[in-house]
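Quick one, tokens below. Sequence please?
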């Protein structure tokens, strides 16, 4: 015997009476979650657009040779969009502008902040490399060498880190350490070996640190 339309309707009513409220609640919750997710996506998109525009303005200030304004704008962008890739890029620019003004302490602050404002290994490595150069220029070779050791750079930056390490060690007449660093740089497939090889070949033969002539 087949189920009549009336019986099917009765079964549907019974089912709805038993489970209807639960189904509605689940549907409503799903809509709320979906609406929240879409709202979050829209907010993220607006934030990215705002940060991109602010970064473009910083680039324009740099081109207009307004370093002070560019650095202030970079700091504001980093404050408003902390943790974004634009924050890290803006702080890298600010660090470069500070170096151009020979303001090494301020450059160091910007570059340290850049390292903390991103999880991108390449951006961290770039900020780290620039920070070591700033510290070396500020007559802080030991700090520069320490900066180059932590965190360890991605493979693509290993040669640049080793090359700069060699330069710093050579400037301190630590010939053995400089030689080891240059050789490490040359062993990397990323190294631009010609100039590094010249620096290596021109190191003194002595493996020990030389004393200044009296």
């Amino acid at each position: 015997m087949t189920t009549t339309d009336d019986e099917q309707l009765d079964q549907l009513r019974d089912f709805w009476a038993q489970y209807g409220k639960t189904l509605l609640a689940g549907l409503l919750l799903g809509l709320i979650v979906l609406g929240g997710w879409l709202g979050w996506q829209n907010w993220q998109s607006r934030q990215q657009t705002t940060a991109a525009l602010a970064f473009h303005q910083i680039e324009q200030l740099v081109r207009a040779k307004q370093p002070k304004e560019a650095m202030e704008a970079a700091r504001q962008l980093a404050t408003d969009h902390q943790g974004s890739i634009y924050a890290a890029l803006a702080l890298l620019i600010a660090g470069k502008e500070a170096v151009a003004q020979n303001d090494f302490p301020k450059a160091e602050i910007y570059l340290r902040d850049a390292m903390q404002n991103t999880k991108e290994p390449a951006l961290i490595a770039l900020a780290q490399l620039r920070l070591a150069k700033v510290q070396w220029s500020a007559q802080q070779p030991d700090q520069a060498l320490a900066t180059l050791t932590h965190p360890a750079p991605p493979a693509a930056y290993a040669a640049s880190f080793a090359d700069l390490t060699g330069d710093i060690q050579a400037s301190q007449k630590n010939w053995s350490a400089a030689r080891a660093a240059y050789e490490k740089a040359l062993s990397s497939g990323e190294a631009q070996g010609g100039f590094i090889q010249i620096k290596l070949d021109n190191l003194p033969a002595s493996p020990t640190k030389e004393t200044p002539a009296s």
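The CA atoms of residues 132 and 144 lie 4 Å apart. Residues 208-214 have pLDDT under 50 and may be disordered.
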